[in-house]
Design brief:
The chain has 132 residues and is an alpha/beta fold. The chain has one domain: 2-Layer Sandwich (Transcription Regulator spoIIAA), CATH 3.30.750.24. It has four helices and four strands. It has a four-stranded mixed β-sheet. Strand 2, helix 1 and strand 3 form a beta-alpha-beta unit. Helix 1 runs parallel beside helix 2. The longest helix is centred in the middle third of the chain and has 16 residues. It starts with 8 loop residues before the first strand and ends in a 22-residue tail after the last helix. The model has no long low-confidence stretch (mean pLDDT 86).
Amino acid sequence: MTTLPHPYFKLTTERVEPHRLRVRLFGDLDHESSDELVEALERRLGEDGEEVRELHLDFRELAAVDSMGLSAILMAHRLCEAAHVHLHLDSRPPHLDRMLTVTGTLDYLTDPCADHDPVALGDTEPPGGPRS
């Protein structure tokens, strides 16, 4: 049996301005790399949380994304809301926009005026309380 090479994934973080952090994603955001993104964001928002007001995820070099990659992006949104940081999804390739549209998450993740309550980390109830 032939072993396939691991998909390429890399991320870089840089402070663009005193209150703005940019995270650039390269390669495949998938089941093997999604934890790396979430852990990096937890670490950076924990270290710089008081100073960061905007987080820009730059997808310019994103090659592929799967459902676990989408889950990591949703978790990034949750982490940002908990830290009162505005999340920007920059330079989205068409395949990411297509996934966000099909799953109904594009407006949720990109609308700065979205009328939804921040979700506390560890909260298992949907925003607005339990559904009947």
